[in-house]
Amino acid sequence: MAEAKKAPAKAPKLADPMEASIEVSTQEMIRRAQKLEIETVFDRAVTMKPCAIGIQGICCKNCAMGPCRLPLPKGGVEGEDTRKGLCGATPNTIAARNFARMIAAGCAAHSDHGRAVAETFLAVARKETTDYTIKDPAKLIQIAPYFGVATTIEKDGETLDRDIDEIALGVAVAANAEFGKVGGTLSYLKRAPQPLQDKWKEQGVEPRAIDREVVEIMHRTHMGVDQDYKNLMKQGTRASLADGWGGAMIGTDLQDVMFGSPSPLQSEANLGVMKEDHVNIIVHGHEPLLSEMIVAACQSQEMIDYAKENGAKGIQLAGICCTANEILQRHGVPPAGNYLQQELAIITGACEAMVVDVQCIFQNLANVAKCFHTKLITTHPIAKMEQENVMHIEFDEHYAMQDAKRIVKLAIENFKNRGADVMIPQHKAKQIAGFGVESIKYHLGGSFRGDYFTLNDNIINGRIRGIAGVVGCNNARTKHNEEHITIIKELIKNDVIVLTTGCSAITAAIHGLLTPEAAAVHCGPGLAEVCETVGIPPVLHLGSCVDNSRILLAATEVVKAGGLGNDICDLPAAGSAPEWMSEKAIAIGQYFVSSGVYTVFGYSLPVDGAPVFRDHLYNGMEELYGGKWDCEPDPIKHAHKMIAHIDKKRKELGIDKARERVLMDMADRQALGMD
């Protein structure tokens, strides 16, 4: 009997490069990957569709009686909503539990980053490591009082400066205690405007210990515990604040103390920063503890000479994701790309080593690396990969430089194994990065009059319409970079100055929006005039995703400068995460909402299957904290929702009419004061 002929296998669906991304080098590398038959995230996004029920937030798998799926009826819910899980959980309970668990995971990720930095700083303070030092003692002295650490002492009737090592040890011990202390609330809550602190106290959402808030969410969302969506989100709010005004803020501050506070510098961005005649090392992830040492090792004469001995002209270090932003803002090391470009850096064929730590790292990097000579090296004890071709070199902060040089040497020795088929896209853009709360103050007023008053004055007089924070990831369910760039361009065209972090910042750099020259091309006349006068880009790069705390503190400085209300919720300001994808984004979004910021996400939010809960996020939150959630996938509508909110706040402040310019004489200027 003849065997039946097998039907020929269907060719896999592949992404259309032009539909997948608006960025030219990404399109080129997608084509190259497909030619080499290497699957990337863009192809997987075509073949794997999202779960229609999970995307609405109404699938519960918190016990073994499920998963219970509660699809929203076609046409929505009319009258009483009778949908229930086996235990009787309603769509609102299920969606709120899922949302709160995303906050818990995001808070845990950012705060664990902060913990690692705090623990390393404790080792520095105890003199247990010599590879890290205190590079910004002024920042240490600035933050010490918030932890209850004195910076001066009284001796023989005199007030003397306290020894910097004593201050460092006190701050290190106190910062580490924030993660698990017994009693009290987080120290950094005192940095928020007083009316906001009062709201948190009134609502009972002041975070206690950071870890406690994450654990409590996990307990509350266990089967059969908290079944009130409002009460669940009360704890979600508390945990998110433990991230934004706790773990993340501690991480940012102590990184500044150890590695130096950022100041504006010039660099480049995109895959074109890689060099064919150099050893190319890509660092990818989020914690800068290792990458700081990799920078120092790559810049050492010893490693440069070793690279030349192995046939290379030098070492080209570049970054992906937030590790890229960390080493960019302090050293000018260029980012090779954002989240969705990580596989493409290897597909160039010119990457000797990709060194990863935690968060946002594709497991598929191992499969891509198999096709080339690239060494994929994991470095963190909580982040390993199962594939055999992945090396694990565990990083120990006590032997930081030793570990870094070992990794760099492996990359250098791998240069000779590079194949002949190399394709580095010839696309890169200049950028100015490294802005922070302090450097913005300097740019606005100089050394002696550094203050946010200049910003406030230009908002009041109408040259600057308002402030927008545009942050977050890329998402393969959207066209790579399109939402970020469309929204940012629409905002600055309408005189809204933009603060950006994370992969959104890398995206803005790649598309040429992080230079002062961009203002004349893309901005409305008011913002263009301010940028030209001050010499800043219309889009300010404030760092990595953990550095979103800088945006909170910048908003607080605007409140302190006066004339724009007494709380963050009074400001003509809005937040955006156009292409969000991670649980960290939900935690960040919630701590911005809880701090009084109108926050718009793109793509979708996992709440549409529970209309009552969605209304609580989109409207009820504003009554509690002054900020609220929104979602808009269309980028132009997204930007104009933010602009409409900014205009509403301008009207409430009575500054919706442009103010005439006033020429000031010396007496007028002196009357402004020097505080």
Describe the structure.
With 675 residues, the protein is an alpha/beta fold. It has 26 helices and 18 strands. The protein has a six-stranded parallel beta sheet with strand order 8-7-6-9-10-11. The protein has a six-stranded parallel beta sheet with strand order 15-14-13-16-17-18, sandwiched between helices. Strands 1-2 form a two-stranded antiparallel ribbon. The longest helix has 35 residues, at 91-125.
Topology, element by element:
Elements (H helix, E strand, L loop, with lengths): L16 H4 L3 H12 L5 H7 L11 E2 L7 E2 L21 H35 L11 H7 L8 E4 L2 E4 L2 H14 L16 H10 L6 H11 L8 H31 L5 E5 L9 E7 L2 H12 L1 H9 L5 E6 H11 L3 E3 L4 H6 L5 E4 L8 H5 L5 E4 L11 E3 L7 H14 L15 E5 L3 H9 L7 H8 L5 E5 L11 H12 L2 E5 L1 H9 L7 H5 L2 H10 L4 E3 L6 H14 L11 E5 L5 H12 L3 E4 L9 H15 L3 E3 L3 H19 L12 H6 L4
Parallel strand pairs: 6-7, 6-9, 7-8, 9-10, 10-11, 13-14, 13-16, 14-15, 16-17, 17-18
Antiparallel strand pairs: 1-2, 3-4, 5-12
Helix pairs in contact: 4-6, 4-8, 4-9, 4-23, 4-24, 5-6, 5-9, 8-9, 9-22, 9-23, 10-12, 10-15, 18-25
Keywords:
Rossmann fold; 6-stranded parallel beta sheet; 675 residues; globular; 3 domains; alpha/beta; Substrate Binding Domain Of Dnak, Chain:A, Domain 2
End-to-end Cα distance, whole Å, is 96 Å
Uncertain residue segments: none
In helices, the fraction of residues equals 40-55%
Number of domains: 3
Query: What is the SS-derived class?
Result: alpha/beta
Q: What is the residue-averaged pLDDT?
A: 94
Q: Count up the helices.
A: 26
Question: What's the overall geometry?
Answer: globular
